[in-house]
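Work Package 3 (structural annotation) set out to generate three-dimensional models for the target panel prioritized at the project kickoff. During this period the team completed the workflow that converts sequence records into discrete structure tokens, so that structures can be stored uniformly alongside our sequence database. As a representative example, we reproduce one entry of 179 residues exactly as it appears in the project archive.
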Amino acid sequence: MAQKVVGSNPTVRPMATPVNRVEAAELLTIDLEKLLSVPPVRPLDLAQFLEEGLILREQPFRKALKSHTWEAYAGALVPIYLSTDAIIPPWAFLLVGMYLSPHATYYAVVSPEEIRDLYRLHLLEHVDWDSYRDKKILLKGCTSISPMVMTEFFRRVMPVAHLVFYGEACSSVPVYKRK
């Protein structure tokens, strides 16, 4: 395609092919929501296994755990928490873990709001950080990932990456450049 130039000496020049600067930057976009995806959350309130929600008696507690439908937690993240002010001995949480282990993807003694972040931090332990060596990384913005998880990802990728940006390809903020 040619472009006609208006002026005193009209000439025809070839038009330069537009350059996609985003593509040319060779950024590796990391979407932490996809990289660290979480299964459904099914909270487990231990108060349901206590007498009046407050008192743990060993034999009734064990019986209640044994008769509970643990299959309902298959493939789920299970935050184990207590909605009452009961005092629970540590072995009680271990027993619950024993029953959850064959079914739940992941479980922890945390509030239902904290389980996603804790699981995502667990997933970061299994990332192949060497696959980011010398890469230009764009850490995708506009996500529901907490700053805690995002910062932990950054802490681990920073020693191997060449550049790290945050945001979107069309509007990113440079965060780190290896010297």
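The chain has a mean pLDDT of 90.
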